[in-house]
Specification:
The complex is a heterodimer of chains A (about 140) and B (about 90). With about 140 residues, chain A is α+β, with helices and mostly antiparallel strands. Chain A has a single domain, classed as Cytidine Deaminase, domain 2, CATH 3.40.140.10. Helix content of chain A is about 25%, strand content about 40%. In chain A, the strands form two sheets. A six-stranded mixed β-sheet of chain A has the order 3-2-5-6-7-8. The radius of gyration of chain A is 14 Å and the shape is globular. The relative contact order of chain A is 0.20. A five-stranded mixed β-sheet of chain B has the order 2-1-5-3-4, with helices on one face. The longest helix of chain B is centred in the middle third of the chain and has 11 residues. Chain B is globular and about 45 Å long. Classes of the chains: A alpha+beta (about 140), B alpha+beta (about 90). Chains A and B meet through strand 4, helix 2, strand 5 and helix 3 of A and strand 5 and strand 6 of B.
Chain lengths: ~140, ~90
């Protein structure tokens, strides 16, 4: 399960929309299964079909999290015209089996955000636990 | 000359489970050549078959991406900090 605040979900969708017509992307910073911060990145692949996190953002974020006792726990990117599901390219290039891989689809009118684990080429979807920013009760699970 | 190499989590199993190690070499190419001699199983994650820098590996000397410093010819000085980070990439196709 990946736990995040509603604002984190909105930040990922906003980054995906800002990047249009290209794919948007960024890093998930936090602890284990809990997102603390979303770090949007320019898509240096500059493409509607592929993405690559800016190497400068990557280095800066890894250094920053170390000093704060946090970790990079995953990555998000958008699919502009296809479902929120990892593509063969996503699976082949998934760098870290411990990461959460979040997909944002803008293919439909309503954005779709889903999270996956990718281990040895096998994709497993995981629940998203959305904590509302105002602290209303238990997290929504989907 | 010794520089410090910082190893990302995902590469540690191939490098003796170390998070940082001292490395020798006047260029990134020399550092990686010595590293792959010591840890042959890491070679496929660091270099292409032709010996060039792996497409999906980012290598930094201090704050600079070596792609802008001459790639494998990028100079390394004593006490430099070398950081390896796998590229984070993918796509919808």
């Amino acid at each position: 399960m990946l736990r995040l605040r509603y604002g984190h979900r909105q930040a990922m969708v906003a980054a995906a929309i800002r990047a249009l017509p290209n794919e948007g992307c960024g890093l998930l910073v936090g602890r284990a299964d809990e997102v603390v911060e979303i770090v949007p990145s320019p898509n240096v692949a500059d493409s509607a079909r592929v993405y690559e996190i800016d190497p400068r953002v990557l280095l800066r974020t890894f250094r920053d999290v170390e000093t704060r006792g946090l970790e990079v726990i995953g990555v998000f990117h958008s699919h502009t015209h296809s479902a929120a599901y990892p593509s063969p390219t996503d699976v082949a290039q998934a760098p870290d089996p411990s990461w959460h891989y979040v997909l944002v689809s803008l293919a439909e009118k309503e954005s779709d955000v889903r999270s996956f684990r990718i281990l040895n080429g096998t994709i497993t979807e995981e629940d998203l636990a959305l904590d509302h920013d105002q602290g209303h009760g238990s997290p929504d699970r989907r | 000359m010794a520089a410090v190499l910082r190893v990302p989590t995902v590469l540690r199993p191939a490098m003796g489970n170390q998070s940082a190690l001292e490395v020798e070499g006047a260029t990134i190419g020399e550092v990686l050549a010595r590293l792959t001699e010591t840890y042959p199983s890491a070679r496929a994650q660091l270099l292409n078959e032709d010996g060039s820098l792996h497409r999906f590996l980012n290598v930094y000397v201090n704050d600079d991406d070596v792609r802008y410093l001459g790639g494998l010819d990028a100079p390394v000085s004593d006490r430099d900090e070398i950081t390896l980070l796998p590229a984070v990439a993918g796509g919808s196709h």
